[in-house]
């Protein structure tokens, strides 16, 4: 049991998911530059402009943990475009969106539920 706890501690300390806060640079206009990419701020989504299937991207921060989260499929509609309340209710039920306060901000599910639906 002791070896498992030590291995978990090793993963938490050396994980690539949660990056070092010293990699972040705050710009004069209030935006944040992280790994050469500009974000409007922590926990503020922006459109994803790269190649791939994602619609949005956010520099998520929860406590002292930071992660870039991609979410939303580029080809699919969401509530912000179709405004269909029945589809919204079904999506939120299927993805266990309620209550959003219990979800981690470091997950794509949180951002899809909060921002798109």
Describe the 3D structure.
The chain is α+β, with helices and mostly antiparallel strands and 117 residues long. The chain has helices at residues 2-14, 79-82, 85-94, 108-116; strands at residues 24-26, 32-34, 37-39, 46-47, 54-62, 65-73. β4 (46-47) and β5 form a beta hairpin. The relative contact order is 0.14.
Layout: helices, strands, pairs:
Layout: H1 2-14, E1 24-26, E2 32-34, E3 37-39, E4 46-47, E5 54-62, E6 65-73, H2 79-82, H3 85-94, H4 108-116
Antiparallel strand pairs: 1-2, 2-3, 4-5, 5-6
- Runs with pLDDT <50, length 5+? 10-18
SSE ordering:
HEEEEEEHHH
Give the overall silhouette.
globular
Supply the helix-strand structural class.
alpha+beta
Note the main sheet: 3 strands, antiparallel
Q: Residue-averaged pLDDT, rounded?
A: 82
Report Rg.
17 Å
Output the number of helix runs: 4
Number of strands: 6
Order of strands side by side in the largest beta sheet? 1-2-3
Oligomeric state of the chains present here: single chain
Q: Strand content of the residues, in percent?
A: 15-25%
């Amino acid at each position: 049991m002791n070896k498992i706890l030590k291995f978990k501690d090793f993963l938490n300390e050396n994980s690539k998911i949660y990056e070092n806060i010293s990699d972040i640079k705050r710009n004069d206009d209030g935006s944040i530059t992280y790994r050469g990419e500009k974000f409007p701020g922590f926990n503020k989504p922006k459109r994803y402009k790269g190649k791939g299937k994602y619609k949005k991207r956010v520099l998520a921060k929860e406590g002292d943990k930071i992660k870039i989260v991609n979410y939303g499929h580029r080809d699919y509609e969401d509530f912000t475009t179709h405004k269909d309340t029945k589809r919204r209710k079904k999506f939120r039920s299927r993805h266990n969106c309620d209550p959003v306060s219990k979800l981690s901000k470091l997950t794509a599910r949180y951002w899809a539920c909060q921002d798109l639906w």
